[in-house]
Amino acid sequence: MTGFTFISGNLGLDLAGTVQHRRSDRTDLLRDPAELARWTVEAGILDVPPAVGDAELAAGKTVREAIYRLATGVVPGGALPSEEDRRLVNRIAAGPPASVRLNGAGRVERDGDLDAALSTVAREAVQLLGGPRAVQIKECGGEVCTRLYVDASRGSSRRWCDMHECGNRAKAAGFRARRRAPL
User: Fold this and answer.
1) In terms of Cα–Cα distance, which of 75, 60, 53 is closest to 141?
2) Domain extents for the chain?
3) Which pTM was predicted?
4) What would you report as the CA-atom Rg of the chain, rounded to the nearest whole angstrom?
5) Could you read off the pLDDT of 107-164 as tens digits, one per residue?
6) Which of 26, 89, 91, 160 could hold 166 in an S-S bridge, CB 3.0 to 4.6 Å?
7) Which of 11, 2, 136 is nearest to 68 (CA)?
8) What is the 3 state secondary structure string of 77-111?
């Protein structure tokens, strides 16, 4: 079972991050319907995994890829997004989102089906892509990583999606290179 990471600063970008290493050793973390259902719970959208079949998994991946393409369109050097992707994400965002309520114990309860979970994700993506924070979207500077994230650091100086993974690898590689360099 693959552990999902939520380090992008936006649910839409986190969903897009379920494909790793897009330009080299592409790895899709949503290999079966149960993994998409589990992602909705781990993302904090729903408390109980929704029913997901093969058709729903395919629909979820279609939304994921549209969000990814739209987000890469705002990254410097990114391709212009398609009108089809924009219409798809807007249509999904227009659906009813997952419901939240405060229960008698003072805790939040979240429920809905997969469509509601995807609507919640698409709404967050729309808010990011169409808002002032769109200019903060960056792609990880890791050698093979293609994860997108919102750079909310002071001075917009963040270079990696996650310091514990990509940042650590890059710093360790730099250290090794400096040690091998002749004096």
Assistant:
1) 75
2) 11-133
3) 0.87
4) 18
5) 999 999 999 999 999 999 999 999 999 999 999 888 888 899 999 888 777 777 875 6
6) 160
7) 11
8) CCCCCCHHHHHHHHHHHCCCCCEEEECCCCCEEEE
